[in-house]
Amino acid sequence: MGIEIDVVVGYPINNEVERVLGLAEAVGEPVTVTFLWEGREEAERAVLVPSATLALWEHWAPTAYPTGGAGEENRAAAEEPELAHPAEFGAFTLFRRRAGRRTAVAREGVVVAELLDPGEAHWLQEKARHVRQSFMDPKQKAAFEEFLARQASPDDQSHAGSSVADS
Questions:
Q1: What is the pLDDT of residue 71?
Q2: How far is CA 72 from CA 50, 81, 100, 103, 147, in A?
Q3: Alpha-carbon torsion 83, 86, 89, 93, what sign?
């Protein structure tokens, strides 16, 4: 999915986070990021999705991302939700939601992207793509049906091809 970037993040301030957020905003497409937060044992993988892209995915995705699989329920029950204190990295402020696994990324008071769990980002992108590809507005559908009506049947095409090859 998009670009992959590995970042080592130190607490409390590290300009690497600001640079990565700025890069993702400039690229305008999803960026997979691995955060190695100081003091934590496990790396945190997330997909930084620009707000416009996320809005498009959520528009076309028919339902919300299903919460928790078999392994996720046990993990979620064992962990208390992290407090939602904003974390500032230069021009960017991260707002981690207590419910769900998303983090909003704001610059100058405007949300420019969201950090999503990689599974959720992939699910949203695929659902949106599938629904969008199957959707045709009424004018497009009528034009497509007209186009199909003008096409020769598959039997007619195979006979036409063999007569050309025979000559």
A1: 42
A2: 26, 14, 12, 18, 48
A3: positive
Query: Which residue bears the tokens 């707002």?
Result: 95
List of residues 6+ apart from 101 with CB closer than 8 A: 116, 117, 120
* Distance, CA of 163 to CA of 10 (rounded, Å): 72
For residues 56 and 99, give the distance between their C-alpha atoms in angstroms, rounded to a whole number: 22
Following DSSP, what letter does each residue of the chain receive, concatenated? --EEEEEEE-SS--HHHHHHHHHHHHH-S-EEEEEEETT-SS-EEEEEEEHHHHHHHHHH-SSPPPP--HHHHHHHHHSPPPP---EEETTEEEEE-SSSS-EEEEETTEEEEEEE-HHHHHHHHHHHHHHHHH---HHHHHHHHHHHHHSPPHHHHHHHHHHHHH-
CA 60 to chain centroid, in Å, comes to: 12
Low-confidence ranges of the chain (pLDDT < 70): 1-2, 6-14, 62-64, 67-84, 98-100, 153-167
Beta-bridge mates of residue 4:
32
Q: Which residues pair with 106 in a beta bridge?
A: 93, 111
Task: State the virtual CA torsion across 96, 101, 105, 106 in degrees, nearest 10.
Answer: -60
Other beta carbons within 10 Å of 53: 19
